[in-house]
Each structure stands twice: as structure tokens, then as C-alpha cells.
Amino acid sequence: MDNVRLILWFALLGTLWLGYTQWVEDYSSAPDGAQNPQAEPVESLPDITPAQPADLPALTPADSAAPAAVEALPEAQETPASTVRVRTDVLEALIDTTGGDLVRADLLEYPVDKDRPDIPVRLLDFSPPNRWVFQTGMRGVEGGPEPNHLEPFRSDAAEYELAGDELVVRLDWATDAQISASKIYTFTRGSYRVGLDFVLENAGDEAWQGVAYTRMRRVHRPIDRSFTSVDSYSFTGPVLYDGDEYDKLDFDDLADEPVTQTVTGGWLASIQHHFLAAAVPPPEESAQYSAQSSGGEYLLTAISPLKDIPAGGRLEYSTQLFVGPKLQNQLSETGRELELTVDYGIFTVLAAPMFWVLSRVHEWVGNWGVSIIIVTLIIKVVFYRLQATSGRSMARMRKLQPRMKALQERYKDDRQALGQATMDLYKREKVNPALGCLPILLQMPFFLAFYWVLIESVEMRQAPFYLWIDDLSVRDPFFVLPLFMGAAMFLQTRLNPAPPDPVQARVMQLMPLIFTVFFAFFPAGLVLYWLTNTLLSMLQQWRINVVVEREDKPKPA
Length: 557
Description:
Number of domains: 2
Number of strands: 20
Distance between the termini: 38 Å
Strand content: 25-35%
Largest sheet: 9 strands, antiparallel
């Protein structure tokens, strides 16, 4: 039983290390195409075949066995010839008049570096090395003019700026044909959600058939995975939600096995640490989703069911776009389960409510570091009774140390007899060594859940605490908190009974040093949590030791 506590400490270290190495294994491999972002891109337009979507009729006579596909068009020029600039209180975006699509988005409230607040995070970008754009439009079954993402659109103004609570930007497409179309973007104050409405009017004498599509195209640029980089712990790449499951897609796998599935209530997104761009088609109807990679890029596509617009008819088709930070409240309002892109992994069941409590506390105190301290205190209160039971067992074991050493001297050449005598001593004194391990065992999942909350929650990004801690999501720049934590852990070992085995005792003495080195590169917020937890545990154990000492003192006659 004396080995259990040591094993649990090593299990905690081992779990963290294995988790890190698995992340590196899963996400660090760079695909060959990623080294050449200007390689030949994937197809320009989605082909319209019976497989896309499944209910699309054959495009050749009914007695033909092989339906034809709509001819793919040449790729548009890399640099937009003309753009429309849109500025809100949180976004500055460019819309390319070729295709009428979002091709650049800067997040005005999220600087790349705290020391350079004038340089915002840029998500969407039309430049070839960093290409990440939406491509939306409609494809006609019969061919001819169609409002796809390579067609010219026009806007009434070159610049738009949000003045009230909502900003509407309209781009129109018109040809000599009887079909006209518009893309209408709706931007909202304080929001990273962008409404996109397709409107198509058929002024001709015949029905028009086609589909609406929303596609995201992005150069795959794997990030450098390193132990000291907080970005290296988060998945970067394409994801799909099929209405039930959230799938992170591997770039290399998509080159060999593209994904195609019909989904109702799904969405597609490209995510990175703290940020994402996503498209959410109408949740009430099915869509054909596909994902593929080629030439150093990947494409995520959603194609609507076949739309039949009669002569003189009108079609309205709405899609929700999201371009911004992973703010969970805004994500959940944009699409069903879109907040899953804040990827807490297997610890979601603990991390999600922990973040909710942390957010509520932050609304009250206004400082994320103080919120971490208060939530740590709340966790200690929740487990106070269990900790107290464990602490009493530890205190009584501490008092048994002299008698334990006497047994070791007596049975130093007979380990079996020593074990039996030790168990008899525990039984007589009503001491259960396993109880001392329970707090550590319970802290492990909370520790890992808290780790993911601090890593994945964009609210923690660049969040200051006090003094030299100006960003809780990265390591302490001067390693002060890890040193304090190591000192607190060392003092904690003085309050607890030492293992009877000299080797184990030596290892336990080294644990504070091992954890100090290990935690030196962890986010400061996580170290703050562990330091607070250790100090509270020390205070509780000291109090328990005093009480047990008082209880065991002989009462005066």
C-alpha cells in the first residue's frame, strides 16, 4: 500500500507526457504538398453529378447509362482585381467582387502579439502562401450562365462600415440571360457570425434547376510542434460535423480517401488554436458534404439538394458563416454543436462545466487569474469531506512513523514478516494508507480538464493576471510561479508521512523538483491552479494534523 501514492504521482506525470507525445504523433507530420503551397490546386468548381447530391437527376437523356458532369471552369486569378471593404466593431473583411466571396478577415480585438496591438489576427486571406477563403455560389444543371464563385458581382459601394447594430452588404450578379442573383451579407455588432443569403430570380420562360454550394479552400500549413509552444497542443485543420459526430480530418488521409456523406444539420469548418472559420448550411435540409486534399490544399464543400425554380420564380437560400475566435456562446448560436470546435477532448464532461463556472466567476471578479483561484477554492470545498478523511489518515500515519521504523529494524531481513507486521499495525490503529491516495487520484482528471480549459478557451488568450503575469495561457516568463509551486510542494511533503522505503522516500523528495521543471513550460494559469491547490491542501492538512495531535494527547486527570 505504501507504493500507491508514489505510483499515482508517476501516473500523473506519465499521463501528461504520453498525452503530449500522442499529440505530436497525431499532428506533427507534414504532408508533402504542404511544403509547396502554390502547387496545382484542386478542382475549380464542384462537379454536379448524381453523387453530388445523391438526388440529382442524370444530365443526359434518360436512356443513357452515364450522366455527364458540369464542366469545371478555370481557376480565378490569385489576387482580387476589385474588392469591397467591410468594417464592423470586431471585423475588417474583404469581399472579392469576382464571386462575391469573403477572402480576407482581420479580427480587430485579437492582436497576434500583446506587444503589437496594431497587428490583428488574420484568418481568411487570399494570398497564395496563406490562402484561406470561402467560395460560394450556385451551379445550374443545364449549363449556361450561372452565379458561381468565378462570376463577376457588383456592389453599390467599395466600402461599408457598421453604424448601427446591423450592416447589410449586397452584391448583384446579372447577365444577358433571364437569371439574376444576389449575395446578401449581414454583419452584426459584436458578433463574428455573418449571415449569407443567396437570392436567385428566374425571369425566363422555363424552369431553372441547380444547387447552391458553400466551400472553404485552405492551404494546409502544419504548425511546428514543440513542447514549449502552446499552439502545438491544439488541432489545426479541417473538421466536419454530421449531425451526430464531430470529426477531425487528417490531411494525408483526405488525399487517399476523400470524404463524402449526406448530412442533415451538419457544418464544416477549418480550425486552429483559438480561432476558426465555419459554414453552417440550413439545418433543416440535407446537404452533400465532401472533404478532399490535393496540391497542399484542402477543400470542404457542402452542396444543397436540387433546387427547381419555375419561370417567374424566386429562390432564397441562407447559410451562416462564422469567422473569428472560439467564443462558445456565439458558436452555439451559429450552429448546432459548433462549440465542439473548442476541443476539450475526452475531458469535455469535466472541462465544459468547469469553464462555465469559471466564466460566471469571471463576470463577478473581472480577472481570469482571480477566477482560477476562486474556482480552485470551490473544488476544494466540494471535496472537503473526502480530503478531510484522507487527511486524518495521513496524519495518523505520520504519527506512526517511529513505530514503522522500529518494525523495519526488527524485520529488516524478512520482508514478508515486515509486511504482515505493518498491516497488523495499520489494523490496530485503524489507519488506511489507501485513503491518502484518493485526493491525488481525484485531482488528476480535474487537473487535466483544467489544463484543456486553459489551453483551448480563447477567453484565456493574452488574459493578464497581476504583476509580471500578463498572459495566463502561456508560460510564466520568469518561471516564478513554477518555483513557488515547487516550494509549496516541498513543504507539503513535510506535512505528510514519508514512505517507509528509503528509495521511495528519496523519490518523493525529488517530486517537487521534477514537477517544477515539468510545469515550467505549462501555461501560467495552470501553474496558478496547481499552486493554489497545493497551498489549500497544505493549510487543510496542517489543520488536520493539529486536531489529530490534540485528540491523541492524554487528558489531564
